Amino acid sequence: MHSLPHDHTGARIRRLRRERHLTQAALSDLSAVPYGTLTKVEQGVTPASPHVIAAVARALRVQVQTVTGQPYMTELRADELDVLIRPIREALDLYDLGADPDITPRAHRLLADDAEELLVAVRAGEIKQVASRIPGLIQEATTAAHATPRGEGWLLLASTYRTAYDVASKLGYYDLAAIALARMDWAAQRGSDAVIAGMYRYMRALTYLREGEYKTGQRLIDLGLRTLEQADPGRERDVVTGQLHLGAAVMAGRSKDGGRAEGHLAEAGRIAEGTGEAVSTHWLAFGPTNVQVHRVSVLAELDQYGQAAQAGRGVSIPADWPKSRRSHHHAELARAQMWTGDLDASFQNLLKARKAAPQQARYHQTVRETYAGLEAARRQLPDSFLSYGSWLSI
Fold it and tell me: Which CB contacts under 8 angstroms, 24+ apart, belong to 54-61?
């Protein structure tokens, strides 16, 4: 079996630590990551969990993507995705320039249909297709919103910014994702929609979750919940409220607060009983299934991998669930199974993650870290394991 890549996450942590003239003991103290865990991660014996990565990034005062190596430029170039990023960035920069005299936007209904189609496509894992189409739609929707400044035009523009966020975050361009979120908030304020404003807080909280800034993330969740209280009662508000509780549960799990995580899961479960499966409501896939899926993630964040694997085996994914969410769940379950030593089952779930949404799985940090963990275990694995590593460019 071939060895771990030279530039795996642990190797990057070691290099960054040495550049700052820190010993492993010193970095362990600064990050509050146990010394034994840190040494194993640097050696590639143990994969780096999201909690460890965020803690180390904070201690070294670098961005999380510096530690993870994102975006994965070699793979992006091979898939011809890197060239699609600059047009998205340029389209996001046009937000305050008013209507473009060279653009005659189509009717609102046609623009709304395209925006909805891209929301669906990105959740189906069609990242390249969406990345190629979203810049033009943003430019057209920007002109439409400025030319006819009604609420519906601004909310349509907010939807295109949300899709830009989805693409950027899935490909590891987190700086661009943050810009897209800021634009989404800007447009949502002009559309005066409390539900969209609540969603923005949820999505922004996820950026702080990734960076390990859990207190700030929780404050954003709380603000989002207060914002949603201004929305009209109904299923739409309930769905976004429930999703905020799920985000808060993962936040609490990663900060090792099991009691608070369980409280948010319970509240999300209560709300889901009323909404039922609401897959297409703002395409959040909220409902009883999403509560179950988030329970697997929370247990894994709490390092309760055996319970996470057991809970994951009991999840039945509905046929109409977005492929991107299905792929993410299989990646999370694979991580839990890897930690329990069930390597065959873990690899099978990595295969399922790729089958569900290959473009997403290829750039998914959990997929890569789990593969590295299986590799480090150096046990008998199927011949297809090596080809999977080649597909990841590892």
Answer: 54/210, 54/211, 54/212, 54/254, 55/31, 55/212, 56/13, 56/27, 56/31, 57/211, 57/212, 58/31, 58/211, 58/212, 58/213, 59/27, 59/30, 59/31, 60/16, 60/17, 60/20, 60/27, 60/30, 60/31
What are the start-end ranges of the H helices in 81-150? 85-92, 108-123, 127-147
Q: In this predicted model, what pLDDT tens digit does every residue of 295-345 receive, in sequence order?
A: 999 999 999 999 999 999 999 999 999 999 999 999 999 999 999 999 999
Q: Where are the domains of the chain?
A: 1-69, 71-192, 322-394
Q: Which CATH architecture has domain 1-69?
A: Orthogonal Bundle (1.10)
Q: Report the Cα–Cα distance between both ends of the chain, in Å, rounded.
A: 12
Q: Rounded to whole angstroms, how far apart are CA atoms 64 and 22?
A: 18
Q: How far apart are CA 255 and CA 267, in angstroms?
A: 19
Q: Assess contact for 179 and 165: CB atoms under 8 A.
A: no
Instruction: Collapse the DSSP code of 369 into the 3-class scheme (helix H, G, I; strand E, B; otherwise coil) and give the result.
Output: helix
Contact call for residues 10 and 42 (beta carbons, < 8 A): yes
Does position 386 have pLDDT exceeding 90, yes or no?
no
Contacts within 8 Å (CB) and 24+ apart, 133-136: 134/88, 134/91, 134/160, 134/163, 134/164, 134/167, 135/87, 135/88, 135/90, 135/91, 136/91
Three-class DSSP category at 278: strand
Q: Residues, the chain, total? A: 394
The answer for residues whose C-beta is within 8 angstroms of residue 178's C-beta and 6 or more apart is 207
What are 149-171's pLDDT values in tens digits? 789 999 999 999 999 999 999 99
The answer to whether residues 52 and 63 touch, using CB atoms and an 8 Å cutoff, is no
Burial (Cβ within 10 Å: 0-12, 13-18, ≥19) of residue 220? buried
CA distance 60 to 81: 30
